[in-house]
C-alpha cells in the first residue's frame, strides 16, 4: 500500500485516493515479488532532510555509500522509518540513540549480530552530520534558459546526448545576485507589514501520537514548501512574550517578541498597523507561518560558548547543544517580485541573472520575460538623442509646468516632477541628475518624436511598445530588464551594440567543441547606416556624370560584376561564426557626454546612495513609474553593467515613496560591491575629442574658472553628427574636381570644418547663420494650439 502511494499517488486524504491505492497495491503484488516490493519501499521512503531511500540517507547523514556504513550507522538509519522527525540524529540525538540501541538489541535477539558486535555498536557516539552535494553555482533561471536553448537547437536529443554546456555566469556574482535580490525583496516586504499566516490547522484535530508528536506536525507542514532559508513552522502555543513552534525538518523551537517586532499588520500598500507589543496580537496556536534562522545576540552567544566549554569531549551532547542554540525569527515569502541581470558590456556575456525570489516556487523568469514600463530609465537615450540635435549638457531647458489638452477626448495631461515641485530654466546635466520630467518632455518635443523613436530603437528597445507621443519621455512603454540592460550596455562600452549571450561553448560527450559563442567585433564604419546625409543630389549627380564622361574619354569599359550569394557548405552549415559586427550606434563624443551626465546622477543626483561603493567611475539612472508600480536602477562602468527591477507581477502600487532610489538601488549596491570588487576604476582622462571648460551654473553660458558661479562642463570638439563631416568631404571633392576641370559648379562652398545645416542657408534666409540651440535666459518655445506652457507661479493657480 505504501509503495503504491509513494510512487503513484499524492498525499491527499480522500476516499478516491484510498481506493486507487488499494487497486494499485493489488496490481503490484501480481507483477512483483515480495523482495522487489520491499526494495522499492526501501529506496523511496522518506528518511528526513530531503533524503528518500536508504542510499540517499547514507549520503546525507554520513557522506558515504550504504555499503561502507558501520553496524551502528546501519542501525541508526533503520530506526528512522517509524518517525523520521522524532528519531532524527541531527534534531534529537538522545532519542535517536535510544532508537538505534533498540534496533541493535533486536538484531542481537534474532542472531544477526554477536554479543561482542552489539556491545561495540551501542558504545559508538552519534557521528551523523548533515552532508549535501557541493554545488559550484546555483543559477536555476539560467539553467532553464540553457535547457530551452538546447531543445531549440538540438530538439529532444539534447536530453540524452551527454552535452557539456559552459555558461558565461560567474559563480561569486551569481551567488551575490540572488542574495542581494532576495534581501531587497524581503526588506520591502517587512516595510509593509505582516500579511498573516499562510495556512491554519486545528491542533485538536491533529492525530498526535504522544510518543512521536513530531510526525503529526511534519504531516501538517508537508504541503507547505520551503524557500531558500525560509521554512514553514506550526505555532503550538503562544503567550505575550513568546511562541512555541515546530519548524519543518528541524523540530521544536521558540520565537521571542523581538523576533517579530517588524510584523505590524499589513492593511494596504501604504497603511500598516500599530507596533507589536504582544506576541498574541501576531500569532495564534494552529497558525502556519514562515521562519528563518537569525544570528545569536551577545547574551545568547556568551551562554553558548560557556556550555561548549563544559561539554568538551562529549560529541553527542555538543551536537544537541548546537541544535538547541539555533534561533529563528518570523518571516514571510515576499509578495513583491524582482529581477537582477548583470553583463559584461564589452562582450555581452551575462555574468549573473536572478529572475525572481525563488525559482522553485515560481519559475517565471522576470529578467527576460516580464515587459514593464521603464519610467525614467528611458531618459538617457532621449538626452543622448538631443545631443545629436545640437543641445549640450549646458543647454538651458525650462522646467515650468505643462498643461496639454486632447480636444478629441476632452482629457488634460499635467505631467509633474517626482518631487511635485517645478523649476525654472535648468541645465540638461542637472535635469538628468534630478530626473526632471518636464525638462525631458520639452527635450523630446524639441528634437521631434519620430527622430527620438528612431534613435532609441537602434539601441535594441522595441519602440512598437511605446506610443508615439510625449509620454514616451517618461517611459510609458514596455521593456524587459534584459532588453533595457542591453541598451545601457551600449552606453557602457563606448557606443557599440553587442548581443547578450549566456552559453560560452558546448562540448559533446567526447569533449569535442560543437559550439562557441561568436564574439563582437566593434565596427566604427557601421555607424554610417544611422546617418541621414544632407541632400546633395544635384552635386552628386553632376560628379557621377563627370566621372562617367572621363571614363568614356579614356576608353574605360565598365565591368559588370555578378554577385553570387555566399552559400555555406554542408560542413559549414551548423558552425556559428567566430565573430560578428557590433555596429557603433552613437558618436564617441555623444557617448562621452551622455555617460558624463549619468555619472552626475550618482555623484549628486537621485542615485547618491551608490557613493557608498567609493568609486568615481559609476554611472546610472533611477526609474519610477506612476503610482510607484515599477522601481528600477540601471548602472554601469566599462566592465560591469547591471539592472534591477522590482514590482508586483500583477501591476499595482508598491506604496508611496517606493521609488527606484529606495527600492531597486539598494539591491544594485549590494550586488555591485561584489561585481566591481576586483575591477580597476576606469580612467578619468578627458579624450582628445572633448574639451573641458566652465559654464555659469545659472545661465549655462561659457565662463572662466574664476567665476564664483562656474561649474565644470564638457564640450565636443568634433561634430556629434558625422554626416556633416561627410558632407564637407564631398564639398572638398567637388573643389578638387573643379580644379581638374571635370565639372563646373555654381556657388561652390569652401571646405568648412564647422559646417552645420544652418550655415548652409543663404545669408538673410530665415534661421540662417544662427544657432537655435544656444542657451538663453528666456524660454524660446513654439506653443502648439492645444498646449499652454505655464511660465509663472501665478499662472499655475487652479491648474495643479
Q: Mind explaining what this structure looks like?
A:
The chain is of the alpha+beta class and 800 residues long. Among the domains are: 2-122, Orthogonal Bundle (Penicillin binding protein transpeptidase fold), CATH 1.10.3810.10; 195-295 and 324-331, Nucleic acid-binding proteins (OB fold (Dihydrolipoamide Acetyltransferase, E2P), Beta Barrel); 337-525 and 583-675, DD-peptidase/beta-lactamase superfamily (Beta-lactamase); 723-769, no CATH class. Mean pLDDT is 82; it is low at 556-574 and 743-800.
Short description:
The chain is α+β, with helices and mostly antiparallel strands and about 800 residues long. The strands form 7 sheets. Strands 2, 3, 4, 5, 6 and 7 form a 6-stranded antiparallel β-sheet that branches. It has a 5-stranded antiparallel β-sheet with strand order 9-8-20-19-18, sandwiched between helices. The chain has a 3-stranded antiparallel β-sheet with strand order 1-14-15, with no helix packed on it.
Detail the poorly predicted runs: 556-574, 743-800
Number of separate helices: 24
Helical percentage:
25-40%
Number of strands: 24
Q: Please give the largest β-sheet.
A: 6 strands, antiparallel
- Radius of gyration (Å): 35 Å
Distance between the termini: 73 Å
CATH architectural name of the domain at 337-525 and 583-675: 3-Layer(aba) Sandwich
What structural class should be given to the helix and strand makeup?
A: alpha+beta
